[in-house]
Amino acid sequence: MTKKYRLCISAKDVASVLDLSPRQAQRKYQQARDAYGKAKHQQLTVHEFAAYYDLPLAEVIERL
Hints:
Elements: E1 8-9, H1 11-18, H2 22-35, E2 44-45, H3 46-52, H4 57-63
Antiparallel strand pairs: 1-2
Helix pairs in contact: 1-2
């Protein structure tokens, strides 16, 4: 059975994945959302986050 993971990522998740303070994580999250042209109500996916910061998707998922 494969392990399921969440589709969307939050600023709190960014803080734990990148080991940042909450404010720094919020800035990184916002940078990625802006780069993809997301509106306020739209979420950032784990895949988009990993691609934007050029991180291996498997490692990001592992740290969630």
